[in-house]
Structures are given as structure tokens and as C-alpha cells.
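Dataset card, provenance and construction

Sequences and ligand SMILES were collected as paired inputs. For each pair, a complete structure of the chain with the small molecule in place was predicted and serialized as C-alpha cells. The example below shows a pair involving magnesium ion. Curators did not alter the output after generation; any descriptive sentences attached to a record were derived from the structure itself.
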Amino acid sequence: MARPLVCFDIDGTLVRTRGAGREALDEAFEALHGWRSATDGVHIAGATDDVICRDVAVRFGRSWTAEQTPALRERYLGALSARLADPGRTEVLPGLPEMIAATAELAEVCLLTGNWALGARAKLDAGNLSRHFAWGVFSEDAADRDGLVPVARRRARLLGLEVSQVVVVGDTVSDVRCARAGQALAVVVETGFSTVEDLRASQPDLQVTNLASGRDEFLALLATLNR
Ligand SMILES: [Mg+2]
């Protein structure tokens, strides 16, 4: 029987890492390109890592080519891991991991995130959440976030999963836009990077304070998709 596919964002939705990602990007850009505070003023929340690279380069009057990404990513991953090794750095958000387990009773689950795949794993490992996600879609999989839902559908099919509706769970208006671009439902939590008002204005299908207080409403929504 076809089941819904629930795609979880990471930053601000599952975990918060107190700026570790931004700091690690800044360290990598400075080390490899000499650009100081490279991400200042660059829109990061909800953007994919590849888009961030492009936007940073533009800020410094350069263009970014795909050939520059592997070295930058390598350096970033090292800087990120060093920060995430501090146990105080990663905060697992309310309701987790119980909510993921409850979701998996009613739906397929995957990750849908703007992180590079290895960065995503590093953040999930830091929050001890990795084992809940067998697969996902990442920055490497599309030109920008809006292209990620179709990739998730395709990947589910390749894995032999029969998917009915797709549900994107995120913390920013970019998550809502990405859901709409992929004809998916949008569920947002108020634990992340968009304001409560901006989230409301983006008209998600469900908006909850966090995944603990919104658990019942969210599971009720999933149950309607299983009928
Ligand atoms: Mg997020």
C-alpha cells in the first residue's frame, strides 16, 4: 500500500548547532580563498550549501565553479566536525527522536536538507539521530532547494517504496516554498530560522510550536493521508 513520504529538514527542525555550520563555512572560505567572514549578509537558512557558495562568491565579486566545491566542502567538513565534537554545541529539538519513530509507523521517512550529505550526517550524528534515517536528499541532488522534492520521489521509487503524498517538515519559509514547488504538503515548526509571523504568512498546511507540542496534530494529519 502506498504510504506518505515525510521529508525532514535538519537545521532548526531536528537539531540546532549554535552557528557551527556558518562558522565552519567562514573558516573554509577564509582558509582557501582569503575571504573573511565570508557568509556575513549571505542568506543561509533554508539555502543549499552549493547555493551558499555561489552567493558568497558573488559577494566577493567572483563567480563560483563546481570544480571549486570539493576542496571547500572538505575543509568545511573538517571545521564542522571539530565544532560538533563539543557536546554542548548540538541541541536536539523537543519531541525527538520519539516523533520520528511515531512518524515511521504511518509513513516512510527521509531527510530533505540543504546540507551537503556528509555535513547532514555529521549534524545528525552529533544529535544521535542518524539511525532514524536510512536515506535522504541533499545539496548535491539539485540546483536549489526547490528541486529536492522531485528527487525524493524518484529516490523513493528506486528504493521500491510506494509513495502517496509527500510532506515536507521544516523551519523556514524556504521549506514551504520547496514543498509547494514539489506539490508536497508543508509542515513547519517554530524552533528554527524563520519568524512565527513569516511562517504563518507562507501559509503552510500545518504550523506547530515544536514537534513535541505539535505531535498529535501532525500525526492526525498523516493519518488522514493514509485513508
Ligand atoms: Mg532548516
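Derived descriptions for this record:
The mean pLDDT is 97.
The chain has nine helices and eight strands.
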